[in-house]
Write a structure and sequence with these properties.
By secondary structure, this protein is an alpha+beta fold. It has helices spanning 2-11, 21-37, 66-78, 171-189, 225-238, 242-257, 353-362, 364-378; strands spanning 13-17, 50-54, 81-84, 89-93, 96-99, 104-106, 109-112, 135-136, 156-157, 204-209, 212-216, 221-224, 273-278, 283-285, 295-298, 304-308, 311-314, 322-323, 339-342, 346-352. The chain folds into three domains: 2-115 and 204-257, 3-Layer(bba) Sandwich (FAD/NAD(P)-binding domain); 120-189, FAD/NAD(P)-binding domain; 273-383, Jelly Rolls, CATH 2.60.120. Helix 7 (353-362) packs across helix 8 (364-378). The protein is globular, with a radius of gyration of 27 Å. The two termini are 21 Å apart.
């Protein structure tokens, strides 16, 4: 029962790492969706839902003024989002987020805001770079001392003569930088003089969930429903084609009246192979849990314990090479017959059953190795060492 409660806690906990406006929007949308969906599940208590926003600085939304950031902070906390300042993600496992100070947050959902960084190709260029690794350019978007070399976007430290510092790596600036550098390149080819790049930000929109937002423009600041309406209207006009605009407008208006649709039918096939990581002490499979998509898990140089009906034993040698919940490759729709807990760090390779079958039948050596492992599994019960 304790394992089941722990699994429920992980499923209902969501961690978003990053406090910029994009990640504040992500946290707000996750919080709204999960809390509304929970109303359809009588066994889910809204108090069990935890949405945690991690910010490496001492405030969220560094792109807006302190007053607007403070308003957004208060609104998010009232809606159940917990915000931790001066906190970074150190690492993660399949069931937890590990913070830089070593604290462990149980969660099955981690959204990491890595942010934009310059391309590694810049390391091979002799051009001057700033502290963030971006190429230093002048006001015309050209690299000083290197005629014919122009840089824009995330890889360029473009001086912002209106607000000071450098231009932010946003689409609003990038689109205008691209137009300006195209004009300057053409002007340079034709013997003309390139023009300096200058753009005044049109403003920042921060959606906060539940039909509310925060808006900051050079002319005014606004928050609440009206700010949310302005945000939606602005992006509506950015959509191409009239048909698409009308479709989106109808969907948005229906959302004002009806509850959110929480049902999604996805018939696409997921990727065939992916990896999972577990730290010592974490549960990989739980006895009695339902087996989902048919998958084989394999690992090397790791140790696990198998627990069935209250008895625990160390995993036999074959489990270090291949295991799947203490039973042969599982069938979808059945319950697991044992719990498996990591005794050391474990890296698992998950492969869909159909892909694994195709691999096994296409390689004689691999098929023979698998047959040997399965025979060891079937007779490996006597090799177990009690803890």
């Amino acid at each position: 029962m304790e394992d089941n409660q722990q699994g429920k806690k992980e499923l209902l906990s969501f961690v978003v790492a990053g406090g910029g406006y994009n990640w504040v929007e992500v946290a707000a949308e996750i919080n709204d969706f999960v809390r509304e969906a929970a109303k359809s599940y009588h066994h889910v208590d809204p108090e069990e839902i935890a949405v945690l926003l991690l910010q490496s600085r001492d405030r969220i939304l560094p792109e807006v003024s302190e007053s607007l950031a403070a308003f957004s902070h208060r609104l998010l906390e009232r809606r159940g989002i917990e915000i931790w300042f001066n906190t970074r993600i150190g690492s993660a496992t399949s069931g937890s987020a590990i913070l830089s100070d070593g604290a462990v947050v149980p969660t099955d959902t981690l959204v990491a805001a890595i942010g934009a960084s310059p391309n590694r190709l810049l390391d091979s260029l002799p051009c001057p770079r700033d502290s963030r690794g971006r190429l230093e350019v002048d006001e015309t978007l050209a690299v000083p001392g290197y005629p014919g070399l122009w840089v824009v976007g995330d890889c360029a430290a473009i001086p912002d003569f209106r607000q000071g510092g450098t231009c932010p790596p946003t689409a609003q600036y990038a689109l205008r930088e691209a137009r300006q550098v195209a004009r300057n390149v053409l002007s340079s080819i034709n013997g003309g003089n390139p023009r300096p790049f200058s753009h005044r930000s049109l403003g920042v929109f921060v959606p906060l969930g539940k039909f509310s937002a925060a808006v900051e423009t050079p002319a005014f600041k606004l928050s609440g429903f009206l700010a949310w309406w302005m945000y939606r209207t602005y992006y509506l006009f950015q959509l191409p084609r009239l048909k698409r605009k009308i479709q989106v407008l109808i969907d948005w208006n229906l959302a004002l009246v009806f509850r959110r649709d929480i049902v999604k039918q996805d018939i696409s096939r997921s990727s065939g192979v992916h990896q999972s990581h577990y730290e010592a002490g974490q549960t990989i499979f739980r006895q009695g849990g339902w087996v989902g998509a048919s998958t084989l898990f394999s690992t090397e140089r790791s140790r696990c314990s198998v627990r069935r009906t209250g008895k625990t034993r160390r995993s036999p040698p074959w489990a270090r090479a291949s295991f799947s919940g203490g039973s042969p490759p599982p069938l979808q729709g059945v319950r697991r017959t044992a719990s498996i807990r990591a005794l050391t760090s474990v890296d698992l390779l998950a492969m869909s059953r159909s892909d694994f079958t195709a691999l096994a039948t296409s390689s004689t050596h691999f098929g023979e190795l698998l047959s040997t492992v399965m025979r060891q599994r079937q007779g490996g019960g006597n090799d177990a060492t009690p803890e």
